[in-house]
């Protein structure tokens, strides 16, 4: 199949970007979206043109490195999949596709479709440590965890930090990401000692990074490659209220 | 590519300093989560008020004596009525101020807009909350001046609610304006009456599945209740 691509080209963070039209020819249905771009880049290299920069690493949908807007939808038309797991059989011959990088104040474009997502790392870092015994592994049954909590924590921990939630949100909010990260530790016993300070620090870091706020559009949930539920945003709100009004732990940060 | 992502101040240190140096209430109400709590609680006050308002409005179908009697009773409570009005006004002001602050954050979070963006999870109501909110904020003072104080009502009779409603809604364009405003209220409530539970963290599996249908039913019943009155006046069912 042959496709027409309008791809955002931007040299670096400071320079202005623009859309450039490319023709992707002899695309196979079995290719992933990124392989289709690889093929286009090889063609560009032969023509001595600058290849299109995009992020990718594992290419099996578990690392969270890849991601872009395809025709206005984060990670493209396939639900519950990253762009590397989006195969060309989801498109038809002659399709016109617009590829844009994630756009948010907290996600400056580094080059073309590559954005700097360190603000998500900042939120994680602000969460700090968990108190866990190091050394040899503890006896497996010494910390009982209800199956329902383990399942729910796993659902939240499935977040790969790709940033699609932020990219899709009309408010540019990182609430789903932050909510998932706060929830998965709040649901498990090792996350309890720092539970209150963690949520306060992570929400503060989220706000400082310049993200918007959640108005429950549920766009994030719809594009999340791991199909993480907005119920984790409600849990973040609940954790935040709990930390402020119920938790007796003195919320004095020790991280410096 | 290196210089593009130059080293910044440690976010952990900045966050720690930020939460340590300020009073916890300042941190709470300064955060997006705290502000959403304000939106939800003030919105809940509004939901309660609307439920009371529509219930009293429907007394119009019981005739002039009933609704005028209810009006007389409310006004006889004196200080309590003013307390309720103060709470309501406070809630409205907080709701608007917080909405303004939150909207500024959200609108500022995407300096470069998408060339193309397609909705896949949101609703028309959720995407128009700011529009419905602003238009309702413009409608409410007009409505108070029209049917409560009578300043904008050409045939206002003090202490005769029934008469004022009938003569007010007989003007067709006034009725159309009210019906349009109630459609905006429907949009605002459809999203707000559901999302306020999310903002407050209420989503236990036991009742989470009920919030959406209850909010939808509430919106439909309330708005149809409000709209029925100008329609009944225009059709001559109430005169």
Shape, principal axes of CA atoms of chain A? elongated
Using only CA atoms, what is the Rg of chain A? 20 Å
Return the average pLDDT of chain A rounded to an integer.
94
State mean pLDDT of chain B (0 to 100 scale).
92
Look at the helices and sheets of chain B and give the structural class: mainly alpha
Largest sheet of chain A: 5 strands, mixed
Distance between the termini of chain B: 75 Å
Tally of strands of chain B = 0
Low-confidence stretches of chain B: 1-6
Q: End-to-end distance of chain A, in Å?
A: 55 Å
Description:
- The complex is a heterodimer of chains A (256) and B (239).
- Helices cover 34% and strands 11% of the residues of chain A.
- Chain A has 256 residues and is of the alpha+beta class.
- Chain A has a 5-stranded mixed sheet with strand order 2-1-5-3-4.
- In chain A, helix 2 packs parallel to helix 5, helix 2 runs antiparallel to helix 6 and helix 5 (175-186) packs across helix 8 (231-245).
- Chain A is elongated, with a radius of gyration of 20 Å.
- By secondary structure, chain B is an all-alpha fold.
- Chain B has one domain (20-235).
- Chain B is built from 10 helices and no strands.
- In chain B, helix 2 (24-30) crosses helix 3 (32-57).
- At the A-B interface, helix 2, helix 6, helix 7 and helix 8 of A face helix 1, helix 2, helix 3, helix 5 and helix 9 of B.
In short:
The complex is a heterodimer of chains A (256) and B (239). Chain A is an alpha+beta fold and 256 residues long.
Which labels suit this protein?
heterodimer, A: 256 residues, alpha+beta, Ubiquitin-like (UB roll), Fumarate Reductase Iron-sulfur Protein, Chain B, domain 2, 2 domains, five-stranded mixed β-sheet, two-stranded antiparallel ribbon, 7 strands, B: 239 residues, mainly alpha, elongated, disordered N terminus
């Amino acid at each position: 199949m042959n496709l027409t691509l309008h791809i955002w080209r931007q040299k670096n963070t400071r320079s202005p970007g623009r859309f450039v039209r490319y023709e992707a020819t002899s695309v196979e249905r079995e290719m992933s979206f990124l392989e289709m771009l690889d093929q286009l880049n090889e063609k560009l290299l032969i023509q001595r043109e600058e290849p299109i920069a995009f992020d990718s690493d594992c290419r099996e949908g578990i690392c969270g490195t890849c991601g872009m807007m395809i025709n206005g939808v984060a990670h493209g038309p396939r639900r519950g999949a990253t762009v590397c797991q989006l195969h060309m059989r989801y498109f038809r011959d002659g399709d016109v596709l617009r590829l844009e990088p994630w756009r948010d104040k907290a996600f400056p474009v580094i080059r073309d479709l590559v954005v700097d997502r360190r603000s998500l790392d900042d939120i994680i870092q602000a969460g700090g440590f968990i108190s866990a015994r190091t050394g040899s592994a503890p006896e497996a049954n010494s910390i009982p965890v209800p199956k329902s909590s383990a399942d729910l924590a796993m659902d939240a921990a499935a977040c790969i930090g790709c940033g699609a939630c932020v990219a899709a949100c009309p408010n540019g909010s990182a609430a789903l990401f932050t909510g998932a990260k706060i929830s998965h530790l709040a649901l498990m016993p090792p996350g309890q000692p720092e539970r209150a300070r963690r949520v306060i620090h992570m929400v503060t870091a989220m706000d400082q990074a310049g993200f918007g706020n959640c108005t429950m559009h549920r766009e994030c949930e719809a594009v999340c490659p791991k199909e993480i539920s907005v119920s984790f945003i409600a849990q973040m709100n609940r954790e935040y209220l709990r930390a402020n009004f119920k938790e007796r732990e003195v919320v004095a940060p020790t991280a410096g | 590519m290196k210089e593009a992502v130059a080293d910044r101040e440690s976010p952990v240190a900045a966050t720690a300093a930020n939460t340590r140096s300020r009073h916890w209430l300042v941190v709470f109400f300064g955060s997006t989560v705290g502000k959403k709590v304000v939106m939800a609680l003030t919105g809940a006050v509004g939901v309660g008020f609307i439920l009371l308002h529509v219930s009293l409005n429907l007394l119009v179908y019981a005739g002039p004596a009933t609704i005028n009697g209810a009006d007389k009773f409310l006004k006889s409570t004196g200080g309590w009525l003013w307390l309720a009005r103060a709470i309501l006004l406070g809630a409205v002001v907080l709701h608007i101020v917080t909405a303004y602050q939150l909207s500024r954050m959200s609108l500022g979070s995407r300096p470069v807009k998408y060339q193309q963006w397609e909705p896949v999870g949101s609703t028309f109501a959720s995407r128009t909350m700011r529009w419905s909110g602003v238009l309702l904020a413009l409608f409410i003072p007009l409505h108070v001046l029209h049917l409560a104080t009578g300043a904008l009502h050409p045939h206002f009779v003090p202490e005769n609610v029934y008469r004022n409603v009938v003569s007010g809604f007989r003007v067709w364009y006034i009725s159309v304006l009210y019906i349009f405003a109630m459609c905006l209220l429907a949009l605002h409530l459809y999203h707000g009456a559901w999302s306020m539970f999310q903002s407050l963290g209420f989503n236990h599996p036991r009742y989470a599945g009920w919030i959406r249908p209850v909010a939808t039913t509430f919106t439909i019943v309330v708005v149809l209740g409000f709209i029925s009155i100008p329609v009944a006046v225009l059709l001559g069912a109430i005169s």
